[in-house]
Amino acid sequence: MTASTNALDNVLAQAQAAAASKAVVAMESQHQEVSHYQPQNTGLAKPGAGFIDAGGIDVDAYLKVDKAGFKLGDAFKGFVDELLVSLDLSEVVYIYQCRAENPGSGAIQYLKSYDGISTVEGKNFLAEVNRFDTTYLKSTGIYETMEIPLTLSVDVQDPKYTTVVEEGSTLGLTPPPTGLTGFRKILKKVRANGGDPMFDVVNLRLKHDTKTNKANQEYGVVEWELLTDA
């Protein structure tokens, strides 16, 4: 077992635990300046990572996991229950995120940082998290997750329109902390099979499932299945 795989396990475990915690703004007594968020030392830093990962993943569309099924980008009108994809594990980008609900519109708002210091817009990450805590509803505080770039292995037909998302198209997926468990199992299987969960290319089947929370609200989840190495 390598140091990199131990670090990966630590990040995934921290991401699930951190969802319940709130970020606290530390104020300097003299200047009253908001301090930076200090990411936990996960051992995942790579040379030049701050520069390389600053733009996040480059994909054609984002995969929405709805209670009704998978939606492949904004132009996709229907829902599908299963996808066949490949994934280069070296292209997964680890991020810090905060999620909250706009009290006026009810829309979900996100904050994202690749280094735990600045948001993608260049603002102080911790100050923006504090703003979410004080002005929005149901703020999660800071949690760690990842951006996963998936490549379609076959064409996917929109069941409600003529749109076809072609084989080779890339889809971005950012799981919530509670959605990391299945992906972590995939990484463990890769390692158990003698592969490298940080750098291998794998083939996956993604199946949609619907769960119900304690408030009796339905939500969609991804069921991950490892097929074979590419």
Task: Give an overview in words.
The protein has 230 residues and is α+β, with helices and mostly antiparallel strands. The chain is 19% helix and 32% strand. It is built from four helices and eleven strands, in the order H-H-E-E-E-E-E-H-E-E-E-E-H-E-E. Strands 1, 2, 3, 4, 5, 6, 9, 10 and 11 form a nine-stranded mixed sheet that branches. A two-stranded antiparallel sheet has the order 7-8. Strand 7 and strand 8 form a beta hairpin. The chain starts with a helix and ends with a strand.
Summarize model confidence as the mean pLDDT.
82
Strand percentage lies at 25-35%
In total, the number of domains comes to: 1
Rg over CA atoms, rounded to whole Å, is 18 Å
Report how far apart the termini are. 22 Å
Order of helices and strands: HHEEEEEHEEEEHEE
User: Number of DSSP helices?
Assistant: 4
Structural class: alpha+beta
**What percent of residues adopt helix (DSSP H or I)?**
10-25%
Give a short account of the largest sheet. 9 strands, mixed
Total strands: the figure is 11
In short:
With 230 residues, this protein is α+β, with helices and mostly antiparallel strands. The protein contains four helices and eleven strands, in the order ααβββββαββββαββ.
Could you list some keywords that capture this structure?
alpha+beta, 9-stranded mixed β-sheet
Secondary-structure map with pairings?
Blueprint: H1 3-18, H2 49-52, E1 61-66, E2 69-72, E3 82-88, E4 93-101, E5 108-113, H3 125-135, E6 143-152, E7 156-157, E8 164-165, E9 170-173, H4 180-192, E10 201-212, E11 218-229
Parallel strand pairs: 1-9
Antiparallel strand pairs: 1-2, 3-6, 3-10, 4-5, 4-6, 6-9, 7-8, 10-11
